[in-house]
Design brief:
Layout: H1 4-18, H2 23-35, H3 37-59, H4 62-68, H5 70-92, H6 110-122, H7 125-134, H8 146-180, H9 183-206
Helix pairs in contact: 1-8, 2-3, 2-6, 2-8, 3-6, 3-7, 3-8, 4-5, 5-9
Length: 210
């Protein structure tokens, strides 16, 4: 098993990464605001399943095939970029609203919420790259099974991500209430969100593979 110092260092890195806004966080917030924290938590379950998928792929070496085959990587990369651009357009389009703005939306069932959360995470190839590039730095073959170490480190990342995002899902309503009484902040937040999403999409498309 990895040394305790390595586990703590990895947990801190995972914590820093989950605090960085991304498609997963945005989707969870939007669902929590539009349909309640329970819907956000169900969506988070789908996101967590996406993490499990990538963790197992990395642990068993399957992800290496995706990274080695340009077309497979590019398909995921462009798919994720298109989805980000769609979210950006939804934020800034005429009549668009902030994801933090309380509104009435068609209620999606638990199955669809869970599935969309899973797809949101699955269409981000950076998750696969993160597992391939980050996990090996904390694995020492002299400390036992490489597979067991990979699964342990991946589990730490998943628990950290789920814990932080669960708190975000529960408190999203409070943030929405704060913004509801400040119309100017709603407009600023909406355009800021759209700009960030578009920038992430452009970066995902133009950034060279590693």
């Amino acid at each position: 098993m990895p040394e305790m110092s390595s586990l703590v260092a990895f947990a801190l890195i995972a914590f820093g990464m989950v605090l960085t806004p991304g498609p997963n966080m945005i989707y969870i917030i939007s669902r929590s605001i539009s349909q309640g924290s329970s819907a956000g938590l169900i969506s988070l379950g789908g996101v967590a399943l996406g993490f499990v998928f990538y963790m197992l792929c990395a642990a068993f070496g399957i992800t290496a095939i995706v990274i080695a085959v340009p077309y497979a990587y590019d398909a995921l990369r462009f798919g994720g970029a298109i989805y980000l651009l769609y979210l950006a357009w939804q934020a800034v389009r005429p009549g668009g609203r902030s994801p933090f703005q309380v509104r009435d939306l068609p209620k999606d069932g638990p199955r669809k919420l869970f599935t969309m959360g899973f797809l949101t995470n699955l269409l981000n190839p950076k998750i696969a790259v993160m597992y391939l590039s980050l996990l090996p730095q904390f694995i020492n073959p002299d400390h036992g099974s490489v597979l067991a170490q990979s699964l342990m480190l991946g589990s730490i990342q998943i628990v950290t991500s789920v814990s932080v995002n669960a708190m975000i899902a529960v408190t999203a309503g409070s943030i929405a209430t704060f913004l509801a009484g400040r119309p100017v902040w709603l407009v600023v937040q909406r355009w800021l969100m759209g700009t960030v999403l578009a920038a992430l999409a452009i970066r995902m498309v133009t950034e060279a593979r590693r």
